[in-house]
Amino acid sequence: MALFALLDKRYGIKGPHLVVAPGSTLENWRRELRKWLPDHAVAVYHGSQDERHKIRRRMRSHHYSVDVILTTYTYFERASSGDDRKFFYKQNFAYVVYDEAHAIKNMKSSRYQRLIKISCDRRLLLSGTPVQNNLNELLALMSFCMPKVFKAGDEQLIDYFTSEKAKKQLKRIRKALTPFILRRVKADVLKALSDKVEDVRMVKLQKGTQEKLYNSIISEYKQRKLAGDVAATGDAQNIFVKLRKASNHPLLVRNYFGRTVDGVDRDMKKLVKTLADLHAFGPAASESMIEKEIASYCDWQLHL
């Protein structure tokens, strides 16, 4: 967003820009763009097939202008999204920003091949996932970002990045790539943060349900250990997770649902049948499939 603002104010380049991101982050992108760049027209290219058709028709209109388009990787994966890709291929963007760019680390994937066809002046890859020792993936990202510098399919370049010698010279390669990669390191971020304040307060468990549940988890684990249950030792970490959940709220643990009478959990059977009748997991989901799906749900999830 700071880059878009800089391009507009200093160079008069307001767009159009394209942001390709996971579907779950589109709303956040839209909200932040409207907050920090209120004078930029933002459009979200997402929705049903009919909705996307209307968006395309609207964007083709001479009376409609947009500075930033937000879309998702999905339309560059599915074979059925050909119309979506044709629309993007006809555009010429100033900048294309790829959020969670590690999603295009495979040069041979159809997603990679389709995304690289988008016409633009520049590409910017954003990723919170550091590329460690896999130089082949790093080469794929660099080639995607700057295909003229790091040519895809260049056997000599691929051999250099994937050879054992290259792995030994990892630090040297990273240093050589410094001009192309901007990293946000802890030392820089800490300068903008206020001093950390720790305030530890002891909170007692609620008398009754919470306390009983907490103690029952410990008691059950002890009984398993005394009975010689070998799996109990490996479950120690899971027990601590359960205790943490019970400390936060009793409903975060499976306690109410799961009580059996003569070996049968009657409440669960009723719930599974109700969910199947309501097609809560789709019309094709059988009762056994639903039972497996909700087996790991806590009381709070089942209650909802």
Can you walk through the features of this model?
By secondary structure, this protein is α/β, with parallel strands linked by helices. It folds into two domains: about 1-190, Tandem AAA-ATPase domain (Rossmann fold, 3-Layer(aba) Sandwich), CATH 3.40.50.10810; about 210-304, no CATH class. The chain has helices at about 1-10, 25-35, 50-60, 80-90, 110-115, 135-145, 155-160, 165-170, 170-175, 185-190, 210-225, 230-235, 235-250, 265-275, 285-295, 300-304; strands at about 15-20, 40-45, 70, 90-100, 120-125. The chain has a five-stranded parallel beta sheet with strand order 2-3-1-4-5. Helix 14 (about 265-275) packs across helix 15. It starts with a helix and ends with a helix.
List the helices and strands and how they pair.
Layout: H1 2-11, E1 17-21, H2 26-36, E2 42-44, H3 49-60, E3 68-72, H4 82-89, E4 92-98, H5 110-115, E5 119-125, H6 135-145, H7 155-162, H8 164-168, H9 170-176, H10 186-190, H11 209-226, H12 230-234, H13 236-248, H14 266-277, H15 287-293, H16 299-303
Parallel strand pairs: 1-3, 1-4, 2-3, 4-5
Helix pairs in contact: 11-13, 14-15
